[in-house]
Amino acid sequence: MPNDPLLERRVRLLGAASPLFYSRPLHLVRGEGVWLYDADGGRYLDAYNNVANVGHCHPHVVEALEKQAKTLNTHTRYLHEAILDYGEALTATFEDPLSMLYLCCTGTEANELALRIAKACSGASGVIVSDFCYHGNSATIAELCTAYPGPEGIGANVRAVRVPDSYRLTEGEGDRFAAEIDAAIESLAESGLNTAALLVDTVFTSEGLPTMPAGAMEKAVASVHAAGGYYIADEVQPGFGRTGENMWGYQLYGAAPDLVTLGKPMGNGHPLAGVVSRSDLSEEFGEKAMYFNTFGGNPVAASVGLAVLQVIEREGLMANALKVGKYLRAGLGKLAEKHEVIGDVRGYGLFCGAEFVSDRAAKTPAPEATRAVVDGMRQRGVLISGTGRNDNVLKIRPPLPFSTENADFLLETLDDCLGSL
Question: Closest Cα to residue 263, out of 50, 82, 69, 32?
Answer without folding.
Answer: 50
